[in-house]
Amino acid sequence: MSDESPRLDELNDRSREVFRRLVEAYLETGDPVGSRTLTRSLSEKVSAATIRNVMQDLEYMGLLNSPHVSAGRIPTELGLRMFVDGFLQVSDLTEDDRGKIEDTLGSNAADVPQLLNSVGKALSGITSGASLVLTPKTEAPIKHIEFVNLGPDRALTVLVFADGQVENRLFTPPPGHTPSSMREAANFLNALAEGRTLTELREVMLREIETRRQEIDTLARDLVESGLAVWNTDGAGTERLIVQGRANLITEAHDEGELVRIKSLFDDLERKRDIAEFLELAEDGEGVRIFIGSENKLFSLSGSSLVVSPYMNADRKIVGAVGVIGPTRLNYGRIVPIVDYTAQLVGKLISDRG
């Protein structure tokens, strides 16, 4: 919240209770909440007219909004942020939810991506939202490297990993490259590559090029160096984001406007262009973070909220994240512990599997 935004301590006791009860009712039903509904839930008996006056004050402060002509109000993004920061009560993880998460992680999936795919399905099923799972980068040792000439200004690096994965990466080779210089560059790299990951190979390459500068043909050396940027990227990194449960969001849509926002969200998820930003969101703070509506840099046009938590490997390094995305009326109190527990278990799984 900006300095101009209203603060919780600016509300008196009655305003706080009206605000809290209204947001809780909205998060439960997704519908605008009227004064008559609130008269039945407040601890002190006050008239509907008094409550309407309080609601008008809260609307003037930017915390509530009237979506229709009716007297019902809903919280604004600013109001939801105040509620999450000041009133949200996080419930304990139920045994049922805990069991479903643990059953998924206890499966005998052959590889980590397959297992994390199952985690995503379980997370979307438990929360009735769409789940996002950012998998760790592939760091399997390299088995073989090859260069393929595609023209004067285009070439392909073929990377074969020890786990059988093959990646093809386009790059711009240096002018004047020849089949001979490509073979020499590939031979130089393969002599260094075996048993090393891509990250390790890059560090060794820089040292070896410097110490053996006289031995390596200039074109071959330039070819190796021009590929450094390509070899340092995620390559097929766009597939690192696993998205499950899109249909849940359609089922939850209340009106045509919400369907349009959800379609915009689907477009964002299909492009998957902002994976790095997704991880940055999780890395910015310890534990679970909640992004409401326009606070969410990834899906600002969709009117959605994101609950996200990073997970770590055995070295306590953040390597991925899990999250749930849905309408801003998410049941935050229930979803926060689910995301938190899932992230902790995924981190343990990644650590155990090395």
Automatic annotation (TrEMBL):
MF-aspect GO terms: DNA binding
GO biological process: negative regulation of DNA-templated transcription
Domain Winged helix-turn-helix transcription repressor HrcA DNA-binding: from-to ranges: 11-76
Transmembrane segments: none
InterPro entries the record matches: GAF-like_dom_sf, HrcA, HrcA_C, WH-like_DNA-bd_sf, WH_DNA-bd_sf, WHTH_HrcA_DNA-bd, WHTH_transcript_rep_HrcA_IDD
Residue intervals of the Heat-inducible transcription repressor HrcA C-terminal domain: 114-336
Domain of life: Bacteria
Sorted UniProt keywords: Repressor, Stress response, Transcription, Transcription regulation
Pfam families: HrcA, WHD_HrcA
Similarity comment: family membership: Belongs to the HrcA family.
NCBIfam families in the cross-refs: hrcA (TIGR00331)
Record's function text: Negative regulator of class I heat shock genes (grpE-dnaK-dnaJ and groELS operons). Prevents heat-shock induction of these operons.
Name of the protein in its database record: Heat-inducible transcription repressor HrcA
Gene from which the chain derives: hrcA
